[in-house]
Amino acid sequence: MNIILLGAPGAGKGSQATKLKDYYGIPHISTGDAFRSNIARKTEIGIYAKSFIDKGQLVPDDVTVKIVADRLKEDDCKNGFLLDGFPRSIPQAEALEGLTKIDYVINFVIDTEKVVARLGGRRTCSCGETYHVSTHSSPLCDKCGKELFIRDDDKDEVIRNRMAVYEKTTAPLVDFYKARGLVVDVDANGTIEETFDAIIKLVK
Ligand code: AMP
Question: Distance, CA 57 to ligand 1 centroid (Å)?
Answer without folding.
Answer: 8
